[in-house]
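To close the section, here is one more complete example, presented without commentary so you can practise reading it yourself. The ligand is magnesium ion.
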Amino acid sequence: MPKTRAPLKTPAAHSSGGASAAMPKALLDFAANLMGAEDPVLENIRRKTPEKGLPPISIGPQEGKILETLARSCGARKIVEIGTLAGYSACYLAKALGSEGVVHTVEYDVRHAAVARQNIAGAGLSDRVIVHEGAALDVLPKLESEGPFDVCFIDADKANYHRYLRWAVGNVRSGGLIIGDNAYLFGKLHLEPKQAGEDAAGIPAMREFLKTLADLNLFSSCAMIPTSEGMAVAVRR
Ligand code: SAH
Ligand code: MG
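Output:
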């Protein structure tokens, strides 16, 4: 099984995302503050994740708001998330739903799934998030009868992204969204696999994932949202 990996970004980069010499963190934080603080319940989940022994590899608050906004913009009621961790991103996706909606989130680490269930309950979202335990490639076929889905958010082991995308193409409705986090592959997407250490297997997988998102027979448009990690999104044709 793929192991959990260390994050590329520092926790501080979470607040703004994408900070660089050209785009100073002070500017990004200033702009983000104008657009509202992080929900305190979600902030608490994010900050306490490392204290609970889980790796600090969740999306950040700006990426959470992007997810919520994308999901709302397509009127999402049924969402699949691959890679739950502590449930932080699942909560943003759940916030986008009406009371009839559901997020199915898939996690193979039982400790992560247990923390996620606690956090989701603490956020008052247990009625609309189901945490499925198991390896995603085993669990996803069992979810198909609940579909078609409005959004599939892919954020688990990178070496399987092309396989998760194949599943999503078959199970996301026309006009629905497929979103992939860490699309820059921790800054290694453009390298030779032998230069990429533990991420070597992710290189061909992520490249195939991105090329497939650009296939106009399958998607009407695609874009890279240039967060610090790269968030790829495409609209299913
Ligand atoms: N989406 C979360 C972060 C997910 S981190 C957030 O932003 O809040 C990636 C998670 O995927 C980890 O918890 C890891 O245990 C899980 N994972 C990795 N490979 C998996 C697989 N094959 N099947 C299911 N979960 C997997
Ligand atoms: Mg991620």
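Once you have examined the tokens, check your reading against these statements. Residues 6-15 have pLDDT under 50 and may be disordered. The radius of gyration is 17 Å.
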